[in-house]
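From the shared-data thread, chain only:
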Amino acid sequence: MKLEVKKIGNSTGLILPRELITKLNLQQGQWLHVTEMPDGGVRLTPYDPDFDKAMALVDDIMDEYKDTLRALAQ
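Structure, as C-alpha cells:
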C-alpha cells in the first residue's frame, strides 16, 4: 500500500485509507505509535510499548502483594 504525503492546512500529513483504518481497528482521536526499525523504516501501530511495560510492572506488583490486595478488597 502506498500513501501520499500531502499538505493539510498548514501541516503535512497522510490520509489513511478506510481499509487500513478498519484493519488497525482505529477510531478518530486515537493515537498511532511510531517504532523505528533497524533497517531505517518505521512501523505504525495502535500498540503503545510504554503502556505494555507499565502493565507488566502492575502484574508483578499484583503478584507480589496479592494477599494484601485480597484483604483490602474485602
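The beta strands are 5-8, 11-14, 33-36, 42-45.
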